[in-house]
Amino acid sequence: MCFLSTIIIFTLTKSLLVVKYIYGLLVLFFGLNSSAQETHIITGYDHYFSPDTAFVNVGDTLRLVSLGYHSITEQDSMDWVNNTSADNGGFWIGLGGSGDWFTMNQSGKYYFNCNPHATMGMKGVLYVGSALGQKEVSYIDEFKAYLDKTNRLNLDYTNVKSINVYSITGKLVYTTPADCRSSRKVVDFKFDTGIYLVSFLNENNIRVTKKIIIQ
């Protein structure tokens, strides 16, 4: 009888340990999934977004903040390409919004702009989940604007037909046509200190904007 009781107690103890182990795995699994979710912030400043290209996972939280006379408006790709002041009924924050929160539950590529400054190319792209393809990322990286040691503006690009440089106030300070066969240009032009937006327009009429800071 004592031997049978010992077997029963041992079996029950072993079963409890197995249940406890499974419970621990479930807690760890859901804990990791919960902690993997992140919060991202896109801010509209004076004529540019930071960041203007964001990469998030499905389930992450997105906060939109607008500083000044700007909106953050989701729009269709064609309106985005053509720098049109339009919205598609997606995420939106009005002028001077202190910050709204959105949970990104569906993978995809989301376009947004500032409606009052759409014609200036104040816009950005949000990649969610499976939309984070290497092709898209490499495409964005095809456009670069940076300063060398002599403070000259260096531009790297692919299939670009024109380049405009705007001051932070929206004034066009430099413009030049670009040879689509070329891939690099050095701008020998004296810029004052400040923040500038370099706008590339490629042969497919897609505009990409990069920010530079001259100190």
Short note summarizing the structure:
With 215 residues, the chain is α+β, with helices and mostly antiparallel strands.
Properties at a glance:
four-stranded mixed sheet, Immunoglobulin-like, 16 strands, 39% strand, alpha+beta
What does this protein look like?
By secondary structure, the protein is α+β, with helices and mostly antiparallel strands. The chain folds into 3 domains: 1-36; 39-133, Sandwich (Immunoglobulin-like), CATH 2.60.40.420; 142-214, Immunoglobulin-like. Helices cover 22% and strands 39% of the residues. The chain has 3 helices and 16 strands. The longest helix has 35 residues, at 2-36. It is globular.
Number of helices: 3
Helix content: 10-25%
Low-confidence stretches: 6-10, 16-35, 131-138
How many beta-strand runs? 16
The biggest beta sheet is recorded as: 5 strands, mixed
**H and E string:** HEEEEEHEEEEHEEEEEEE
CATH level-1 class of the largest domain: Mainly Beta
The CATH architecture of the largest domain can be named as Sandwich
Q: C-alpha Rg, in Å?
A: 26 Å
Distance between the termini: 88 Å
- Under CATH, the topology of the largest domain is which? Immunoglobulin-like
Topology:
Elements: H1 2-36, E1 39-44, E2 49-50, E3 53-56, E4 61-66, E5 72-75, H2 77-81, E6 92-93, E7 100-103, E8 108-113, E9 123-128, H3 134-140, E10 144-147, E11 153-156, E12 160-167, E13 172-177, E14 184-187, E15 194-202, E16 207-214
Parallel strand pairs: 1-4, 3-9
Antiparallel strand pairs: 1-2, 4-7, 5-6, 5-8, 8-9, 10-11, 11-14, 12-13, 12-15, 15-16
